[in-house]
Request: fold
Amino acid sequence: MSAVPVLIGARRPPAIEEASDAASAGPLVDTFGRVHRDLRVSLTDRCSLRCTYCMPEQGNEWLARSSILTVDEIEQIARVAAAAGVTTFRLTGGEPLLRTDIVDVVRRLAAITGPYGEPVELAMTTNGIRLPEVLPGLIEAGLGRLNISLDTLRPERFRDLTRRDRLDDVLAGIAAAAASGLRPLKLNAVAMRDVNDDELIDLVQFALDHDAELRFIEQMPLDAGHTWDRSRMVTRDEILDTLSTRWTLTPVPGRGGAPAERWSIDGGPHKVGVIASVTAPFCGDCDRLRLTADGQLRNCLFSTTEFDLLPVLRPPVAEPVEAVDKGIDRMLRACVRRKLPGHAINDPGFLQPARGMNAIGG
Ligand code: SAM
Reply:
């Protein structure tokens, strides 16, 4: 088998990766020395909301159902990734709670251990809408952490932004998470000019009231409609200036490979974070890989190259599990080897990936 990257819209000649296709071992280290420990697993591209910065209201091109990975396939990829040193799995989408087998997915991944028998960390990013119904089952199955997205506390604004009248359902999901023992609980908000930038303080206060940590995300060029406009983006510095009018923020050291820079609020213990992918990229410490719901490995949110695991998982003639495991491992290593030093959003020649965020996995 050759680990051939698929350039979306075109095929690269197989020879490119063949020289480095030999099976190897050890952690997933790229050519810049970054060790990959985090795999984001998208479970579906479907969502119960239609956030303007992520998906179009109508006319989205959905992934073919036949290409969506089964729970067995996801478990097999995760098991091989854990053997190669991945320690954290984050379930995302689309909306991961729309998978009817979500409790089974969580149970299977939570049971995976690393090369020395150490348990993996299992987290989920969700809009929270189905949480009141499914959270007890997810916790019992082994879910360790939750991030819930919340961009506004105002019902009309929520309707405009998500094109759905579901704010009460999201708030009920956050209440269920706050009442559960899962900590740290994080809330994600994309900061947008003239949309919700007058709510930054209210959102942080809401998080504090729910024993949660708010993390603001700079809006990234990942909307399916390709309408991102740098001038509409609220920057990290603007967010900090606004929050500083209310609280004293002190930087929290020891960020490591985490996407969020964090500050303690009025001396702690509560904190707030900013994910400044555009104005303060953190690619130099990136330890993340992504798996799309249709089996494409990606080494960056903004990559235009994908590594197709479907032919490895579904060979024309059945292969022994060990052979498929080896194929997955090779593909993981090929994907990591091809990782670029940075996402290049700020380069003049930057090209937005063909997939929207919902089809990549946020
Ligand atoms: N449906 C889940 C949710 O709502 O959290 C998981 C998927 S969603 C794509 C994951 C995260 O990506 C959310 O916090 C969302 O706000 C963020 N996101 C989506 N599009 C984005 C964009 N263009 N820029 C920045 N963040 C974005």
Q: What stands out?
A: The longest helix spans residues 321-337. The two ends are 30 Å apart (CA to CA). The pocket of S-adenosylmethionine is lined by residues 47, 53-54, 92-93, 95, 125-127, 149, 188, 190, 217, 219-220, 222-223, 357-358, 362 (CB under 6 Å). The longest strand covers residues 185-191.
